[in-house]
Amino acid sequence: MNGMTPWPYPLWLAHRGAGKLAPENTLAAFRLGAGFGFRAFECDVKLSRDGEAFLLHDDTLERTTSGQGSPAEQDWAGLSQLDAGAWHSPPFAAEPLPRFAQVAAFCQANGCALNIEIKPCPGEEARTGDVVAREAARLWAGALPPLLSSFKPEALAAARDAEPALPRALLLDKLWDGWFECAQDLRVVAVITNWRLMDATLIQRLHASGWRALVYTVNDEAVAERLIADGIDGIITDAVDLLGPGGK
Description:
This protein is an alpha/beta fold. Helix content is 30%, strand content 18%.
């Protein structure tokens, strides 16, 4: 790991807030994760039709909100009125979709780091990467910047071009041909893979390139222990009550 710059982010990140025990990608999930001691979070950010950055994972609204259809075809005024909690359980009914700015305020008020997955709706890759990067630079001015990540190289390229100083990470669910060269071109600081792809050899290869190695979504203690022993730099987990700061 010679020549690597210091890594300012905690080892453990709560996935989509505490996105199993509370409705994912809501402030309620962030609050719950913080209550379990987590000081770093992962979340998904996309854009409304009128350019508002907000938290949502899917390309459609049905699974996690009271809305329907693509959020890219709806303005924030309508999206802000949706119920993003009742689908999970009654205590979270009427929990709204959070604006990106609200999550930024929560993280900075609580001294928490953030990994933002840029999650564009189809066809919105460059626009989403550009807007999210510019918003992140504005919202975190003078603070520890968030780590911007995406499975979509076009979104990360737009983020790089908009705000080159913000740290970036390429997300991988498989080691597709050309991923390494793509990561070089995007000037990433980290690569985040499905945990099943990550082993000591890949960690060493990433570290030799000056990059950090992170994984999603680890919910098994034995897997986490193996990865930590291999030198992993970040673990994204759903099991906020069992692993990491929340572990028993």
